[in-house]
Amino acid sequence: MNTLEDRVAEFWAWRMKVPVETILAPGTHLIAGNADFPPPNRLVLYRSEWNTLILLPLALQPQIETLPLLGSSDHAVTVDEAVAQIQAALPALGASFAWRDYYYYQLPERITPRRRPGVRLLTPDSAADAAALAVLSAACSDWERALSQISMEDALVAGCFAGDRLVSVASLLYYFEGWPVADIGVLTHPDWRGQGIAADVIAMLARHSSSRGEIMQYRTQEENIGSQRTAIKAGFIRWTVEEGIAVNPAA
Fold first, then answer.
1. pLDDT at 204 > cutoff 60
2. pLDDT of residue 143
3. Could you tell me which residues are beta bridge partners of residue 245?
4. Is 250 a residue whose pLDDT tops 80?
5. Could you read off the pLDDT of 4-47 as tens digits, one per residue?
6. Tens of pLDDT along 54-64?
7. d(CA 181, CA 186)
8. For 54-77, b where at least 16 C-beta lie within 10 A, e where not — what string?
9. How many other β-carbons are positioned within 10 Å of the β-carbon of residue 208?
10. Which residue has the higher pLDDT, 250 or 220?
11. CA dist 227 → 51, 145, 215 (Å)
């Protein structure tokens, strides 16, 4: 497997503990979870342009896998269809839609040659850079800080400065041992949003990351429209949609 699409498929096969053929095959595929994920009160769908993968909690697997539409080999079920079928066949579970996130990956040929003034890498042992990051973080909400998870200890941190003021920052995190997949965190000052600055900062990270043969992963929530626009501006393509279904297994 040589193309980025192939490497991403192989990565997801590793994550979900299934053959790569399952990741690429059309239709709907049920996948047994483990003791840690998903939790007993969640089903998780990963929906691409060609298929839907449904990760089942172990306790619910015997009930859910008997539903015909959810095991279809020729139809990629939507989250609405899955919820409706579970509600009809197993009403006691109280199935309902819970969340929707998007996963993006960047093709090397789509890395933008952006050169905005003031964009540079932050220096890990720089007290001035650390102070600038602290000021930027304080201007953002708790929710935004929790999503970005940016710190000076991250593997690589880039930012855009307006004078001495850090107005946008992004970093790379490596969650997946043995895989060259870099997850991106982004944080932009509220007064400086909507100007494409975050995309320029990400472009700098992308140039460094791609030179090492890494895969850049960008995850964002459905309600964060600005973050989705940033991903597209920075040259990312959407690979899959993660959707959650809440259930009550004790009912």
1. yes
2. 92
3. 43, 97
4. no
5. 888 999 999 999 999 999 999 999 999 998 878 899 899 999 99
6. 999 988 888 88
7. 16
8. bbbbeebeebbeebeebbbeeebb
9. 15
10. 220
11. 25, 14, 19
pLDDT tens column, 112-155 = 666 789 999 999 999 999 999 999 999 999 999 999 999 999 98
Cα–Cα distances in Å, from 208 out to 139, 167, 184, 193? 28, 21, 13, 24
The Cα-based distances of 222 to 70, 133, 198, 219 in angstroms read 24, 26, 18, 10
Based on the number of CB atoms within 10 Å of its own CB, is 183 exposed (0-12), middle (13-18) or buried (19 or more)? middle
202 — phi, psi (to 5°)?
Answer: -65, -35
Q: What is the pLDDT of residues 143-191, one digit of tens each?
A: 999 999 999 999 899 999 999 999 999 999 888 888 889 999 999 999 9
- For residues 169 and 189, give the distance between their C-alpha atoms in angstroms, rounded to a whole number: 9
Contacts 24+ apart (CB under 8 A), 142-146: 144/187, 145/187
Residue partners of 242: CB distance under 8 A and separation at least 6 = 44, 45, 46, 99, 100, 101, 102, 103
